[in-house]
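Hi everyone,

Forwarding the result from last night's run.
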Amino acid sequence: MSKKVGLLTTLFLLGLATVALAQEGAGASEKVEGLRFFLYSAVAAGFGIAIAAFGCGIGQGIAVKSSVEGIARNPEASGKVTVTMLIGLAMIESLCIYALVVALILIYANPVSTLIQGFVGLAAH
């Protein structure tokens, strides 16, 4: 088993080395760098919204679980517990919406996006 892991690790590192040592041609320009920056921004936005959605989902699940347990222990307080739970869920959901706004800013309000639009326009011709 350890020989397979060692072999796979070696192959992975060799694959990374070929990417790291690859040289760009003489025609590489700022447009390609802008495209890379845009792609990295899109990947970062995707990871950010995924982590935010994961955290908000766990937080909402724990909140609902706790409120249902509280209502089961004291049914007379169900009105107050429900209102407090709904306010808390709205606050948790707003955090995920904020993460979505930041992700959209990373993608669409990118200062390099005009450069990318020019690159796409040149590729269309």
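The two ends are 53 Å apart (CA to CA).

Cheers,
N.
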